[in-house]
Design brief:
single chain; alpha/beta; globular; OPRT
Length: 217
């Protein structure tokens, strides 16, 4: 897999930004040293091809029994389409909720009780949206064998949520991969790497420390 090249492209194209001096504030209130906008990947042909190739290889390796690829609306749909094309497998996509008109479908595409579905999303934070899609497919009596994603923050809440849903997650890239490569390339010091490493382990504690340090200035 070309994970190093993908990470470099994410940074070069400002899809991923890291800033320890002025952390980003998420809607949840958490302060974070990282900001991502993975929806931008669909506009960069070389990058999206590397991602699709990587995800296809990952699924061949970790989910060889997959018979259907599913995209999680909306950001996971294009990646799922490119992966399904590479694997020559059927494609479905799953809405966040059923349509309020027509047949009221939440799942678009054709699946059967015998299928083994892998769902794809672009970004995993707590896993809420993709696990909602997992539940929707399982409610139809269809087996979801796991989830693949372009990126995961590796937050403890996500680990708990996937375990509770009895669902495996295999990401192409992780926050740990990102900061490890940055450290190797001397983009930040040992001290900065240590600060970055502690964030995804306990983001709320990290936020409190940053707020306290800022208040003490």
């Amino acid at each position: 897999m070309q994970t190093d090249k993908i990470i470099q492209s994410l940074i070069d194209n400002r899809i991923v930004s890291i800033n320890l001096k002025k952390p980003f504030r998420y809607a949840s209130g958490i302060l974070s040293p990282i900001y991502t906008d993975f929806r931008l990947t669909i506009s960069i042909p070389e990058l999206r091809d590397m991602i699709a190739d990587g995800l296809a290889e990952l699924i061949r390796q970790d989910y060889p029994e997959a018979t259907v690829i599913g995209g999680v609306a909306t950001a996971g749909i294009p990646h799922a389409a490119w992966v399904a094309q590479r694997l020559n497998l059927p494609l479905i996509y799953v809405r966040a909720k059923p349509k309020d008109h027509g047949a009221g479908k939440q799942i678009e595409g054709r699946i059967s009780k015998n299928d083994k579905v892998v769902l794809i999303d672009d970004l995993i934070s707590t896993g809420g949206s993709v696990l909602g899609a997992v539940k929707a497919v399982r409610n139809e009596g269809v087996n979801v064998i796991g989830v693949a994603s372009v990126f995961t923050y590796g937050l403890p809440d996500a680990d708990k949520n996937f375990a509770a849903a009895k669902t495996t997650l295999h990401p192409l890239l992780s926050y740990a991969d990102l900061i490890s490569q940055g450290h190797k390339e001397h983009k930040f010091s040992d001290e900065e790497y240590a600060r970055l490493s502690t964030w995804h382990q306990a983001p709320w504690d990290w936020t409190k420390r940053e707020e306290q340090a800022d208040a003490a200035k």
